[in-house]
Specification:
There is one protein chain. The protein is of the alpha/beta class. It folds into three domains: 2-151 and 335-388, FAD/NAD(P)-binding domain; 227-330, Flavocytochrome C3, Chain A, domain 1, CATH 3.90.700.10; 405-499, Up-down Bundle (Methane Monooxygenase Hydroxylase, Chain G, domain 1), CATH 1.20.58. Helices cover 31% and strands 20% of the residues. It has helices at residues 14-22, 41-44, 59-69, 76-95, 129-139, 208-215, 246-249, 275-287, 302-305, 307-315, 372-388, 418-429, 435-446, 450-455, 463-484, 527-531; strands at 2-4, 7-10, 29-32, 49-50, 110-111, 121-122, 145-148, 151-158, 165-172, 177-181, 184-187, 220-221, 226-235, 238-242, 253-256, 292-295, 324-334, 337-339, 351-353, 358-359, 432-433, 493-494, 507-511, 516-520. It has a five-stranded parallel β-sheet. It has a five-stranded mixed β-sheet with strand order 20-18-12-23-24, covered by helices on one side. A hairpin with a 2-residue loop joins strand 13 and strand 14 (238-242). Helix 12 runs parallel beside helix 15 and helix 13 runs antiparallel to helix 15. 53% of the residues are buried. The protein binds succinic acid (SIN).
C-alpha cells in the first residue's frame, strides 16, 4: 500500500510536534510514530526547558554555561541561535497558556540544574514538564496534521541516483509494509539510550533515524558523545527511571552509605557540577563497592514538587520518608547524530533531522541540563519555516527509484539479541572506555556482516529484526568514533587517554557508508566570540 503527503515527520516528541504545528496549513503533514504519541522520551522528560526569561539573566550567560558543560565542542552560531530563539519559543508557549509552574507572587518560578550559573529552568507540573509540553503542543496541532501511530519507519526510499529522499518504507503493528512518499522527510526519532542496559530512555529509543539516514548516505557525527545521567533510581540491581537533576538544584546532595558528601572537593559546583563529572564520581564510588544516594531530607514538600519521582519510588518500594534515594548513572542523551545545517537539512536532498536525532553542534561533548526540550522547540520551528518557503514538487511516486541489488534477509542470524548487544555496548562503549575493549567490540561486529547491514535492502525483515539491525549499526558507529577519539572530552571518557587533548579540539568524527573522516567543520571553536 502507498500513501502520499507533503511532509512526513518520523517520531512524535517535542521537536516533531513543534514542527508540525508551524508548517503551512496547506501542507498535508503526517507524523509517523512506532509507538503511541504519548510514549516519547519527551513525554516522560522530568527536567524543564532552559530559557533566558529573568531580566538579570543573559544570552551570553546561557551560552557560556552551554559551552562549558559541552567542553567547547560547539557551533558558536548554533548555540547563539539556541539560546536566543529558545527564549522566544518559550515566551511563545507562555503566551499560548502553557501551564508553567509559578511562585506565590504569580511569577514563573525558575529552577536551577547542573552546570547552570543562574536559575533559568521553566517547569510545568513539577517534574512533569515533558508531559505538559507534549499535551500543549498536541492541543495546538492544526487539522492538516495526521498522526499515524504504531507504524515503524524502516528504510528511506531514495531516487534512482541515491541523491534525493522521496519517501519511507514502514512496518506496521501487524507486520504489513507500506510505502509513504513526500517531498520532505524529517527524522525526529530521538536518541539511542536504549543501546545500553542502564538507561533513562524508553526501550524503543535505539537511534532508528540515525541508522536509517546513515544507510541512505547522510553524514553522522559526534557519536562518541553519549551522555550518562548521574542519577537514575537504582533498585535490585537495575535502574528504574530518572531522579531529575532539579532535585539537586533544590538542595538534594549525593552521599555514600556513610553519609559522606560525594562531590565535596571535586568541583566548585559540587552536586551541580556538569553531568559527566557527577556521573563519573558516582561510577567510581559504585566501582569501589559503595552505594550512592541522593539525600533529599532538606527538600521541603518533596512529594508535591516531584510527583513523578515520588510515584517511581512508590512503584519500586522505596521510601521518600527515609530521605535517601539510591542512584546509579545510566545512558541519557546522545549529543551526536545526523549532521544537519541550521535548517535541519542533511546531505541527502529532501531529508531533514531535528531534535536529539540531529547533530547541529549545540550540545558539544556534553549537553547542558534542560537544553534538549529547548532544542526541539527551536529546530522544530526553524525547519518548519525553511520548508514553508520551499517550492511544492509533485508527484513523487512516479520518479525512478533506487532499488537495492541484494537484501539483508539471508543474514538475520548475524543480528544479535537486544540484551546481548546492550551488554556488549556497555562493556566497550559505556561510561569508561578503553581502546582495547572498543577494538574487540568493533571486530566482533565487523565479523557479523556489518558491511551488509549498512549497504543492503531491508525487504522482508520483521520490525524486531529491523530494530536489532539499527541497534547493531549504532553500536558500531558509537564504538568506532569512541575508538578513534584518543582523548577524553565531556561525556567521552577514555581511561587510556584520560585528558583533553588540544589536538582534538574542534575536530569531529564524521561517518558515512563510504568513509570515516576526522575534520574541522562548523564546530570551529572561536574563543574570541564566546568571551567577548
Ligand atoms: C533531568 O531532569 O535531570 C533531566 C533533564 C535533562 O536531561 O535536561
Amino acid at each position: 500500500m502507498t500513501r502520499q503527503a507533503n511532509v512526513i515527520i518520523i517520531g512524535g516528541g517535542v521537536a516533531a510536534l513543534q514542527m508540525a504545528r508551524h508548517l503551512r496549513l496547506q501542507y498535508h503533514v503526517m507524523i509517523l510514530t512506532k509507538t503511541s504519541i504519548r510514549e516519547s522520551n519527551s513525554y516522560y522528560a522530568q527536567g524543564g526547558i532552559a530559557a533566558v526569561i529573568d531580566k538579570e539573566d543573559s544570552f551570553t550567560a546561557h551560552a557560556n554555561d552551554t559551552y562549558s558543560a559541552g567542553r567547547y565542542h560547539h557551533s558558536v552560531q548554533e548555540v547563539q541561535c539556541l539560546v536566543e530563539e529558545g527564549a522566544l519559543a518559550v515566551k511563545e508557549l507562555l503566551s499560548e497558556g502553557f501551564p508553567a509552574d509559578k511562585s506565590a507572587n504569580g511569577e514563573i518560578s525558575l529552577g536551577l540544574e547542573g552546570a547552570h550559573g543562574a536559575k533559568r529552568i521553566v517547569h510545568a507540573g513539577g517534574d512533569a514538564t515533558g508531559r505538559h509540553t507534549v499535551e500543549h503542543l498536541l492541543k495546538s496541532l492544526p487539522e492538516n496534521v495526521e498522526i499515524i501511530e504504531h507504524e515503524m519507519a524502516a528504510e528511506i526510499i531514495l531516487s534512482s541516483d541515491r541523491s534525493a529522499c522521496c519517501g519511507v518504507k514502514t512496518i506496521g503493528k501487524d507486520g504489513t509494509c507500506k510505502n509513504y512518499f513526500a517531498q520532505h522527510i524529517v527524522m525526529a526519532t530521538g536518541g539511542a539510550g536504549a543501546l545500553y542496559p542502564f538507561t533513562s530512555n524508553q526501550q524503543t529509543l535505539i537511534g532508528d533515524g540515525i541508522a536509517m539516514a546513515f544507510r541512505a548516505g547522510a553524514e553522522v557525527a559526534d557519536m562518541e558523545f553519549m551522555q550518562f545521567h548521574p542519577t537514575l533510581l537504582f533498585s535490585q540491581g537495575e535502574t528504574k527511571g530518572l531522579v531529575s537533576e532539579a532535585v539537586r538544584g533544590d538542595g538534594g546532595v549525593l552521599v555514600n552509605e556513610a553519609g559522606k558528601r560525594l562531590m565535596e572537593g571535586v568541583h566548585p559546583l559540587k552536586d551541580l557540577a556538569p553531568r559527566h563529572i557527577t556521573a563519573y564520581e558516582i561510577y567510581k564510588a559504585r566501582a569501589r563497592g559503595e552505594e550512592v544516594y541522593i539525600d533529599i531530607r532538606k527538600i521541603r514538600r518533596f512529594k508535591e514538587k516531584y510527583p513523578t519521582i515520588t510515584a517511581l519510588c512508590r512503584r519500586n518500594g522505596l521510601s521518600i520518608e527515609e530521605g535517601l534515594l539510591p542512584v546509579a548513572p545510566g545512558s541519557h542523551f546522545l549529543m551526536g547524530g545526523i549532521v544537519v545545517d541550521t535548517y535541519g537539512r542533511t546531505k541527502v536532498k529532501g531529508l531533514y533531522a531535528i531534535g536529539e536525532t540531529a547533530c547541529t553542534g549545540v550540545h558539544g561533548a556534553n549537553r547542558l541540563a534542560s537544553n534538549s526540550l529547548l532544542e526541539g522547540l527551536v529546530y522544530g520551528k526553524r525547519t518548519a519555516h525553511f520548508i514553508n518557503h520551499s517550492p511544492v514538487v509533485v508527484p513523487l511516486e512516479d520518479q525512478p527509484l533506487f532499488k537495492y541489488e541484494e537484501q539483508i534477509n539471508g543474514k538475520t542470524s548475524s543480528l544479535l539479541s537486544k540484551e546481548v548487544l546492550q551488554q556488549s555496548t556497555m562493556a566497550a562503549a559505556g561510561m569508561i572506555r578503553t581502546g582495547s575493549a572498543l577494538k574487540h567490540h568493533l571486530q566482533m561486529l565487523e565479523a557479523l556482516d556489518m558491511k551488509d547491514f549498512m549497504q543492503k535492502g531491508i525487504d522482508d525483515l520483521s520490525a524486531d529484526e529491523a530494530e536489532r539491525l539499527f541497534m547493531q549499526i549504532n553500536s558500531y558507529l558509537i564504538s568506532r568514533a569512541a575508538w578513534l577519539r584518543t582523548e577524553s572530552r565531556g561525556a567521552h571518557i577514555r581511561s587510556d587517554y584520560s585528558e583533553e587533548d588540544r589536538n582534538w579540539s574542534g575536530k569531529q568524527i564524521i561517518q558515512t557508508i563510504h568513509a570515516t573522516q576526522i575534520r574541522r567543520s562548523f564546530y570551529e571553536w572561536n574563543q574570541a566570540r564566546v568571551h567577548a
